[in-house]
Amino acid sequence: MAKILFLPGAGGSPDFWTPVAKLLPGAWPWHHFGWAGLGDQSHDPAVRGLDDIVAKVLAHMSEPADLVAQSMGGVVAARIAIERPDLVRRLVLCVTSGGVDMAGLGAADWRPAYRKSFPNAAEWITSSPAASDLPVERIAAPTLLIWGDADPISPVAVGRHLNVRIAGSRLEIVPGGDHDVAVTHAGEVAPLIRRWLSDPAR
């Protein structure tokens, strides 16, 4: 079994994916990332933007791994899958927010509420321009897309858009799920991830 790297969104907490991880087989190896300076996490002067986060994840990838990513973490995971396909065995993108025309697909602006919730978060996370459109067609890893149907930050239209552009991807929609669907609906999300990562046919 490949190591699973859990990537949170802009909330930055390494605990974000814990509810899901607890429902996966205990023998599966995994690592939970946190993002310095985001959410309530301590700051690190070496982390000045998304490029530094991508570099930190890549520094942990000496062999192919499975990437399970939420929201902004999905942009990190997609970039790695595009730039280093040799290092990504399988990919799970959950309510990814970025790398596509979010506003054009009906997404609400998350920045004001984020800054109110996390006033001490690094300035770059809300002042940086929106992530440019990623060439997601180049993603070769088998990709599972998980969306909630009640998410204003990354609406289902974003998942459907990626489903069309990423060859062989599968979109799963969780009824009632919002942007924290992996936490609030862990009991539904975990089996989807377990089947995707363990299916020998993929």
Named CATH topology: Rossmann fold
What is the average per-residue confidence, as pLDDT, rounded to a whole number? 95
Q: Structural class, from secondary structure content?
A: alpha/beta
Please tell me the CATH architecture by its name: 3-Layer(aba) Sandwich
Sheet with most strands: 6 strands, parallel
Low-confidence stretches: none
- So how many helices? 8
- How many runs of DSSP E, i.e. beta strands? 6
Tally of separate domains? 1
Strand order of the largest sheet: 2-1-3-4-5-6
Based on CA atoms alone, the radius of gyration comes out at 15 Å
Measure the end-to-end span.
13 Å
Reading the helices and strands in chain order gives EHEHEHEHHEHEHH
Structure report:
- The protein has a single domain (6-149, 165-198), classed as Alpha/Beta hydrolase fold, catalytic domain (Rossmann fold, 3-Layer(aba) Sandwich), CATH 3.40.50.1820.
- It contains 8 helices and 6 strands, in the order βαβαβαβααβαβαα.
- Helix 2 packs across helix 3.
- The model has no long low-confidence stretch (mean pLDDT 95).
- It is an alpha/beta fold.
- It has helices at residues 18-21, 50-58, 72-83, 111-117, 124-127, 156-165, 181-184, 186-198; strands spanning 3-7, 30-32, 65-70, 88-94, 143-148, 170-174.
- The longest helix has 13 residues, at 186-198.
- Helix content is 31%, strand content 16%.
